[in-house]
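Page 37, continued from 36.
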């Protein structure tokens, strides 16, 4: 594994340790979703945004320029977070560092799972992953970065 890849994986792991939620309810999903919409529309980004708690979709927005396929990518990325308990980007980077892919050899159907950036776990300490915040429509590192920017800003507001 190259030093750059190792640094990226360490950075992604640090984000997941640091960016935890004290709670996560409908109002939290709404305000975080609205913040993501504000960030994306302010930049003219063609993304779809999705926030779930458990099996319930609590927020969804399809912004100008996004397409129905973004919703399929969201579903595939969410499954990765739900199965592995880590962001879809971190799972993908860990696999790539080992020369592996998320496929039938790992017991998953690649048509149903996408280890590409953009889905981030909503983790509550002493509880675990209770939901997923996802963006789709940009290159995977940019999808991930937008989610991280929004979560950091939202948590900094004292949520």
């Amino acid at each position: 594994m190259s030093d750059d890849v190792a640094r990226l994986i360490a950075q992604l792991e640090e984000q997941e340790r640091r960016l935890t939620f004290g709670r996560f309810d409908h109002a939290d999903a709404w305000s975080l979703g609205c913040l993501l919409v504000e960030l994306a529309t302010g930049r003219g980004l063609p993304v779809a945004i999705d926030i779930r708690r458990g099996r319930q979709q609590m927020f969804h927005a399809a912004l100008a320029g996004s397409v129905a396929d973004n919703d399929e990518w969201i579903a595939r990325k969410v499954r990765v977070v739900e199965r592995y308990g880590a962001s879809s980007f971190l799972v993908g980077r860990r696999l790539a560092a080992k020369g592996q892919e998320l496929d039938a050899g790992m017991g998953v159907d690649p048509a149903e799972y996408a280890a590409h950036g953009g889905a981030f776990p909503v983790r509550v300490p002493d509880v675990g992953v209770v939901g997923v915040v996802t963006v789709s429509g940009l290159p995977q590192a940019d999808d991930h970065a937008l989610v991280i920017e929004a979560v950091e800003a939202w948590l900094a507001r004292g949520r």
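The radius of gyration is 15 Å. Flag for discussion at group meeting. The chain has five helices and four strands.
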